[in-house]
């Protein structure tokens, strides 16, 4: 029997199945009936799977029953039970793809060596150490490969898929289209999408490799520049040899080039070719920041013309953002000037964007040009194969590049194990043949190329969409730009929205669930984890929030205030704090009871300026939860976004609206409508102290909203 059969993918031995059952969460969950439009329902608990857990917990327990402390590890094997040495796999590159492949193979008894050019990239000392979104499809593959490792990723990651995500207008911040990534995961029995620090992810994977095979399994400072294929003179067997720039040679039964977009293995296999510049440079940063709607919104892409901006909760009170801008490659910024540049590019956009920029220290802002490679259909050459970005580097817009690398790794482990088992089976009845490495690598490539190419295509489409968005007719028309002032919705925006609304559910299920059939060949039980429930709001409210922007806005755990409009020239974290302080001192929290504004001593918000009347305006939150301003027959009027309000008629307010007391630009006092997360009141405006995981328990019941 070959080494890998004890952890094989398909036929699960009875003992193994038993132990897996005990490791599975005792309670799987299914989506509530309300989501399908039926009666209201909570996250319903399915029948308990394992008796000990079921006895200990009520089926509606909000806590995950499974408490996997440490991953189960197999002892490294010197030789397979057949007496033959295990297959030797050399992996060039210890990025996400290389490490996931290494874990999967080591766990199944293969002899693995990972060769990394620069280990600091793994430990995060390299430049690009930001978080990465690992979506349901890849989490499912990871779980199928090594449940213990997956469990650690689940615990360390910040769940974004349990909230509303989507695309917004960059200037107004209004929703363009929302994504529900939660229900596709639940419906397909996959873990819910998470964001995790790359450093943490790679550490988890590298630790898992070392636990199985010792420190030397990952070799640092090995820059692979070439490979050869031939015959081992000692054994007469075919081998592949990776060659480092210092002449060191590393031979194995096969070589996997997981060495990223600038892959040297690929260069040798396919000839020299350069990646394509996407025409976008990308600034990125992580900031201590608590958005007002952090409990209801996970990540957002703000769309623009020739620029777009991505923000995502990454847990621990931090937000990650990416600002993409169309410009020639290899641009640089003078020292200390990145934030200023970003404010020039995005300064007129919604405060959801500018607040994040303000909250990021200059030195935490990084910049890189974005490249991809056209899809290729040859990933294998004899005993050498490509995996991850070396085969299919794509634009980052779908957050799927790393996920595809994980799927690749799963497929290769699956195919190698299958072939090894087949050889064992045949050996029981006759002479033992060699493992058909070339056949396996060819099969792996055939199974992966179409999916990788289609995700690559979707990522390209998403990038195109995000960067060619035009809100109003006239945008990008040069001398005709003045037409934008009529605010006529751009036809491209309208048609695009209709098409996306119609196609998004199908696209989501293809991206997240398109690899599910392959996962079904593992012994992974297709359940979504109980802990993956929405925390910010009950699951039954998902459909409402997907449809109704106002309902989603109302659900934010936030209070509303007016902050004095500044010229926006200061982009420091202190500026953000000053805004909070200014709001605290000048504007009371807008409440149900209402807040009066005027020069009169009895007003809640006393403003002394010639443009302000004694009783000028009233702000209040209405019964439904929306916020309004009403002009109280003031002399010079109350204006919202430069439009004078009729007296005594309440006007609905939205975040980012500018309210002016007196005619704007003529000595008026101008305020911006702002939302602050409730936690900021307690922390005195200190961002980054809110831990959503602790603050919000999973929601299992209807809140009665
Ligand atoms: C801005 C941005 C955001 C992204 N966000 C996401 C996201 O949210 N989700 C997602 O799934 N993907 C995302 N991606 C894509 C993702 O980063 C890549 O697809 C993923 O890292 C590919 O993994 P890999 O293992 O194939 O390659 P890499 O992660 O690039 O790893 C390659 C490894 O090989 C090493 N190496 C290189 N050359 C050699 C050599 N000659 N010899 C030895 N070792 C070598 C490198 O040092 C590195 O450790 C994003 C990409 C960008 C640019």
From TrEMBL:
GO cellular component: chloroplast
Species the sequence originates in: Chlorella variabilis
UniProt-listed GO biological process terms: abscisic acid biosynthetic process
Subcellular localization: Plastid, Chloroplast
The protein's Enzyme Commission number: 1.14.15.21
Biological or metabolic pathway of the protein: Hormone biosynthesis; Plant hormone biosynthesis; abscisate biosynthesis
Cofactors (names): FAD
Spans annotated as Disordered: 684-705
Biased composition (Basic and acidic residues): 684-696
Cited Pfam families: FAD_binding_3, FHA
Domain of life: Eukaryota
Name of the protein in its database record: Zeaxanthin epoxidase, chloroplastic
Domain FHA residues, every copy: 595-645
GO terms for MF: FAD binding; zeaxanthin epoxidase activity
């Amino acid at each position: 029997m070959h080494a890998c059969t004890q952890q094989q993918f398909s036929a699960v031995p009875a003992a193994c199945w038993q132990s897996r059952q005990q490791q599975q969460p005792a309670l799987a969950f299914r989506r509530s009936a309300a989501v399908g439009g039926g009666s209201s329902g909570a996250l319903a608990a399915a029948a308990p799977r394992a008796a000990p857990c079921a006895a200990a917990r009520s089926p509606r327990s909000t806590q995950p029953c499974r408490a996997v402390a440490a991953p189960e590890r197999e002892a490294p094997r010197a030789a397979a039970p057949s007496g033959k040495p295990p297959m030797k796999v050399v992996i060039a590159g210890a990025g996400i793809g290389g490490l996931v492949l290494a874990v999967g193979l080591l766990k199944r008894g293969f002899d693995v060596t990972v060769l990394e050019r620069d280990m600091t990239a793994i430990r995060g000392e390299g430049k690009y150490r930001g978080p990465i979104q690992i979506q349901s499809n890849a989490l499912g593959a990871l779980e199928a490969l090594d449940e213990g490792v997956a469990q650690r990723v689940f615990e360390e990651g910040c769940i974004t898929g349990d909230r509303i995500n989507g695309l917004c207008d960059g200037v107004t911040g209004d929703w363009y289209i929302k994504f529900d990534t939660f229900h596709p995961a639940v419906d397909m029995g996959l873990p819910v999408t998470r964001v995790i620090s790359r450093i943490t992810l790679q550490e988890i994977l590298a630790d898992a490799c070392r636990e199985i095979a010792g420190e030397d399994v990952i070799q640092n400072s090995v820059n692979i520049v070439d490979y050869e294929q031939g015959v081992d003179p000692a054994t007469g067997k075919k081998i592949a040899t990776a060659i480092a720039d210092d002449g060191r040679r590393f031979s194995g039964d096969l070589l996997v080039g997981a060495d990223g977009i600038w892959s040297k293995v690929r260069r040798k296999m396919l000839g020299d070719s350069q990646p394509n510049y996407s025409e976008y440079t990308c600034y990125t940063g992580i900031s201590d920041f608590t958005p007002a709607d952090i409990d209801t919104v996970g990540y957002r892409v703000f769309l623009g013309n020739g620029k777009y901006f991505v923000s995502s909760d990454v847990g621990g009170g931090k937000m990650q953002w990416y600002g993409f801008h169309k410009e020639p490659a290899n641009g640089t910024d003078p020292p200390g000037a990145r934030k200023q540049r970003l404010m020039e590019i995005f300064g007129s956009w919604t405060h959801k964007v500018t607040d994040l920029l303000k909250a990021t220290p200059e030195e935490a802002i990084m910049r890189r040009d974005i490249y991809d490679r056209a899809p290729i259909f040859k990933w294998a050459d004899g005993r050498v194969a490509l995996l991850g970005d070396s085969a299919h580097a794509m634009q980052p817009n779908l957050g799927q590049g790393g996920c595809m690398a994980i799927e690749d790794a799963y497929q290769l482990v699956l195919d190698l194990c299958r072939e090894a088992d087949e050889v064992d089976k045949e050996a029981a009845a006759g002479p033992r043949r060699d493992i058909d490495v070339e056949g396996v690598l060819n099969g792996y490539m055939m199974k992966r190329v179409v999916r990788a190419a289609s995700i690559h295509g979707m990522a390209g489409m998403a990038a195109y969409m995000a960067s060619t968005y035009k809100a109003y007719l006239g945008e990008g028309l040069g001398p005709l730009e003045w037409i934008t002032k009529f605010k006529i919705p751009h036809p491209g925006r309208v048609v695009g929205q209709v098409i996306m609304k119609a196609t998004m559910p199908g696209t989501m299920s293809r991206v997240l669930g398109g690899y599910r059939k392959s996962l079904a060949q593992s012994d992974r039980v297709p359940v979504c984890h109980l802990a993956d429930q929405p925390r910010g709001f009950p699951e039954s409210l998902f459909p409402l929030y997907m449809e109704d922007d106002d309902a989603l806005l109302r659900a934010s755990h936030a209070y509303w205030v007016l902050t004095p409009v500044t010229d926006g020239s200061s982009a420091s974290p202190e500026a953000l704090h000053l805004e909070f302080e200014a709001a605290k001192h000048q504007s009371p929290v807008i409440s149900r009871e209402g807040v009066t504004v005027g020069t009169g001593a009895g007003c809640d918000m006393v403003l002394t300026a010639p443009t302000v009347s004694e009783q000028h305006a009233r702000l209040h939150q209405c019964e439904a939860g929306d916020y309004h301003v009403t002009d109280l027959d003031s002399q010079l009027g109350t204006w919202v976004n430069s439009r004078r309000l009729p007296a005594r008629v309440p006007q609905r307010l939205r975040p980012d609206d500018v309210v002016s007391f007196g005619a704007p630009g003529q000595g008026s006092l101008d305020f911006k409508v702002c939302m602050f997360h409730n936690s900021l009141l307690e922390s005195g405006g200190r961002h980054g102290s809110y831990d959503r995981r602790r603050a919000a328990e999973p929601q299992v019941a209807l809140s009665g909203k």
